[in-house]
């Protein structure tokens, strides 16, 4: 039986952080063992919000590739490529944009919330409104059957399914409707307790040095009701404890018990967590250092990935154009 095809991408907007690692990349590493995986660095998507400042884009793309590979994405198991190296994504996006009603895009819940979140940028653009159509093209061009997503991205996937249905109805049954593969972990809190996100500047990057990790964990918010060392704590509302549940499962019961009895202080609790994270990330750092010294290897991996991706993408695009009457 042929393997199910999986498609997923990540935007190159600075170094990957622990939220990306837990919410997406570790899932990719697992999926590549059993599925036909296409993973991409979504550089066109980065332009939808960062079009006005692209001076770091080339570097960010490179760093994203290094972070993904050092976190375990394996080019012999999955196709890893840069989105703009496969221009078929852009052409299918154009074709799909012709049949996507504006109202479908305006009702996507993240459209307004993201504009609010990034209000210092002008996101009243055609590209930003249309980015879910680009996402649909990313998925449909590979006829992916599964897409790893968090709960908050389910409306986007539903839109992709609607666009596929509309295309199939108007022209020809070409696109399968992709299913969600929900990620196991809920969003990881950042150092300020909100969802970890580069736009909130509350991230711990997977490439952060041990010192930077100690500093960032040291300023993390904790149980707001625990003011003094003698106060009993409530680990379930503490962001630091959320990390114990993910990164230090063998220590979490002890940490929770001692927190509730006030026999553990927050400073020590954070020091222990910082050490756990430093050890967790050590193999990723070592792999990253090796890749930094092999720029040609990195170029070749992305080039080979793009060639493999284009072979599939161009066949789908030809089918789609024929169905429309363009070929
Ligand atoms: S002891 Fe640990 S789990 Fe408890 S409130 Fe402090 S940081 Fe959070």
TrEMBL record:
Chain location of the short sequence motif 'KMSKS' region per the record: 195-199
GO process annotations (BP): tryptophanyl-tRNA aminoacylation
Organism superkingdom: Bacteria
Keywords linked to the UniProt accession: Aminoacyl-tRNA synthetase, ATP-binding, Cytoplasm, Ligase, Nucleotide-binding, Protein biosynthesis
Keyword Isomerase: no
Residues where ATP binds: 11-13, 19-20, 150-152, 188, 195-199
Locations listed in the record: Cytoplasm
Stored InterPro entries: aa-tRNA-synth_I_CS (IPR001412), aa-tRNA-synth_Ic (IPR002305), Rossmann-like_a/b/a_fold (IPR014729), Trp-tRNA-ligase (IPR002306), Trp-tRNA-ligase_bac-type (IPR024109), Trp-tRNA_synthetase (IPR050203)
Enzyme class label: ligase
UniProt motif ('HIGH' region) ranges: 12-20
Single GO MF annotation: ATP binding
Glycosyltransferase in keyword set: no
Catalyzed reaction equations: tRNA(Trp) + L-tryptophan + ATP = L-tryptophyl-tRNA(Trp) + AMP + diphosphate + H(+)
Annotated EC: 6.1.1.2
GO cellular component: cytosol
Binding site for L-tryptophan: 138
Main location: cytoplasm
Subunit structure: Homodimer.
Function: Catalyzes the attachment of tryptophan to tRNA(Trp).
PANTHER family: TRYPTOPHAN--TRNA LIGASE, MITOCHONDRIAL (PTHR43766)
Family: Belongs to the class-I aminoacyl-tRNA synthetase family.
Protein name, as recorded: Tryptophan--tRNA ligase
């Amino acid at each position: 039986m042929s393997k199910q095809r999986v498609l997923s991408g990540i935007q190159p907007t600075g170094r990957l952080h622990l939220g990306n690692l837990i919410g997406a990349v570790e899932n990719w590493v697992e999926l590549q063992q059993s599925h036909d995986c296409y993973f991409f660095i979504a550089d066109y998507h980065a332009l939808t919000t960062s079009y006005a400042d692209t001076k770091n884009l080339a570097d960010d793309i490179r760093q994203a590739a290094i972070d993904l590979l050092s976190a375990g994405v394996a080019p012999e198991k999955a196709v890893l490529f840069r989105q703009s190296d496969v221009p078929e994504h852009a052409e299918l996006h154009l074709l799909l944009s012709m049949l996507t009603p504006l109202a479908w895009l305006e009702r996507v819940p993240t459209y307004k919330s993201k504009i609010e979140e990034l209000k210092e940028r002008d996101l009243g653009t055609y590209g930003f409104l249309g980015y879910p159509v680009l996402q649909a093209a990313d998925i449909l061009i590979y006829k992916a059957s599964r897409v790893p997503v968090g709960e908050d991205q389910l409306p986007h996937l539903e839109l992709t399914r609607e666009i596929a249905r509309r295309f199939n109805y108007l022209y020809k049954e070409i696109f399968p409707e992709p299913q969600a593969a929900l990620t196991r972990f809920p969003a990881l809190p950042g150092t300020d307790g909100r969802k970890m996100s580069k736009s909130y500047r509350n991230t711990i990057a997977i490439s952060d040095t041990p010192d930077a990790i100690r500093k960032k964990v040291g300023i993390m918010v904790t149980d707001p009701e625990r003011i003094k060392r003698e106060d009993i704590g409530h680990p379930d509302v503490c962001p630091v404890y959320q990390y114990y549940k993910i990164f230090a499962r063998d220590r979490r019961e002890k940490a929770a018990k001692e927190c509730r009895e006030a026999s553990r202080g927050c400073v020590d609790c954070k020091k222990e967590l910082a050490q756990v994270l430093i050890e967790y990330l050590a193999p990723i750092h070592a792999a990253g250092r090796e890749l930094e010294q092999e720029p040609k290897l990195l170029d070749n991996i992305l080039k080979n990935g793009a060639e493999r991706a284009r072979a599939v993408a161009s066949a789908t695009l030809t089918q789609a154009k024929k169905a429309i009457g363009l070929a």
